[in-house]
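User: Here's a chain of 306 residues. Predict its fold as tokens.
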Amino acid sequence: MSSSEVSHPVVFSTSTQHTLPPSKYLIPAPWARYQLSQLINKSLQLSQPVPFDFLIRGQILRGSIAEWCAANGVKEEETLEIEYFESLMPPKLLTAFAGEEWVGEVNCQIKGYILTASYDSVVRIYDHAQTLLGTVEGHSGPVSTACWIPGFNPDSPQGVVTGSHDGTVRITPIQDIASMPTHEELLATASLRLHTSPLSSVAASTNGSHILTAGWDGLLGLFTTQIPEEDEVFDDQEPVPRKKRRRVETNDHQPKRKTPVHVLRSHTSKVTRGLFNKNEKDGYSCSLDSTIRTWDIEIGACKSTI
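Assistant: Prediction complete.
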């Protein structure tokens, strides 16, 4: 019997709102995703077509049922349990606008606002109408990465963190983003000092209390978001930066220097990304040394390496 004449008994299941009546269907073996999706749409008489994808024994159906059965040794009389779910359609371009220079990073974590880091050393804040609300300047090199610092109100951040090729990270507070006038020049209040090479990423913890920086020098730095009253510098007698610090007099108009709570050392090449776990106790990093590492943020130690 040719594959075009073969049918397979099938039972469908789904966790979506589009539920078929419980029944066993005889599905032609040559059918694939498109025909199965049509069957569900016609059976449910959906007013607007909904595309579906299909899962058989943990595998997404990429070809026909006959091809899947042949590859997995499933015989004609065996009943297949197929789970279906709504397909994720490719995103559509709604609009675009040109930046002043190369854009190092875009962050849309705060609903309704866009944060961009640019190679002209300027960080810009836009609303969804493309209105420029504010700018952050001060870096002496291209700004390669930026992120929001979450606030107590999820719709209003307490500030932004920016990382640059100049090796510094800056914290710039935001009082109320909803009432920010257009073209406001925002001033950084803290400059985080650790890295000797360009920054590849900055990340803020979910509660906004800490920042994790990653750089081309192979280091990660853990900082608090608290702004010091005076500059912090590493103790001259301490070769490896730790919590030990001394304070110096500073100009009130300049961002206060901050030193890290922990320096995370283990990678042997450029660190490309650092992130917090939602539990706020662990962090993750990946590097050009081909490893992914898990960190105990509280003690600043590497827990595991992949």
